[in-house]
Write a structure and sequence with these properties.
- The protein is an alpha/beta fold and 165 residues long.
- The protein has a domain of 111 residues: Lumazine/riboflavin synthase (Rossmann fold).
- Helices cover 45% and strands 21% of the residues.
- It contains five helices and six strands; from the N terminus they run βαβαβαβαββα.
- It has a four-stranded parallel beta sheet, with helices on both faces. A two-stranded antiparallel sheet has the order 5-6.
- The two termini are 20 Å apart.
- The relative contact order is 0.20.
- The mean pLDDT is 93.
- Bound molecules: riboflavin.
- The site of riboflavin has 16 residues, from strand 3 and helix 3.
């Protein structure tokens, strides 16, 4: 085990750092807008609650989840951001589109993150039906937009810690 982790008394994996120093991009897919709107509300509110300045949160819409990758790429090319949150909802249909879109976004988000060396957060619901999506967008399973925002804050903070030392 790494030496710095021997004494865990000061270490809490549940601590959420302040979002105040960071600039965030949020890319939201318009497909399944009721769901992605709820994910967005959760993510935005969470960033603000954890200290992000409204003027440091940059939101853009893209047509569908497939476009989240290029949306995140464009944001990182054109704005000086510490993290980008991608929000979408892909619902299983009768064709194989679901698999192609989910695969493309998951790989796309990873590639954009590696390309820019910045956290790009995968806040995309991939569900069998609309009810499962609603349950995860402010329903009985919470709001995955909130989790995406907390992940963005934690990753931006990790990057800062590593830069500072
Ligand atoms: N985009 C989503 O964000 N969620 C979906 O559930 C979704 N389903 C789609 C199903 C079909 C048959 C097609 C053609 C597109 C779908 N899209 C969906 C849109 C997709 O992400 C993208 O915007 C378009 O394929 C244009 O590149």
């Amino acid at each position: 085990m790494a030496t710095q982790l021997k004494d865990l008394s000061d270490f809490s994996h549940t601590t959420i750092p302040s979002a105040e120093p960071f600039r965030f991009g949020i890319v939201v897919a318009e497909w399944n807008a009721k769901i992605t709107g709820a994910l967005y509300a959760g993510a935005y509110q969470s960033l603000i609650e954890h200290g992000a300045l409204e003027s440091n949160v940059f939101t853009y819409a893209v047509p569908g989840s497939f476009e989240l990758t290029s949306g995140a790429d464009l944001l990182l090319q054109n704005k000086n951001l510490d993290a980008v949150i991608c929000l979408g909802c892909v619902i299983q249909g009768e064709t194989r589109h679901f698999d192609f879109i989910c695969d493309a976004v998951a790989h796309g988000v990873t590639n954009v993150s590696v390309k820019h060396v910045k956290p790009v957060i995968f806040g995309v619901l991939t569900t069998d039906n609309e009810q499962q999506a609603m349950d995860r967008a402010g329903g009985k399973h919470g709001n995955k937009g909130v989790e995406a925002a907390v992940t963005a804050i934690k990753m931006a903070d990790l990057a800062k810690q590593l830069q500072d030392h």
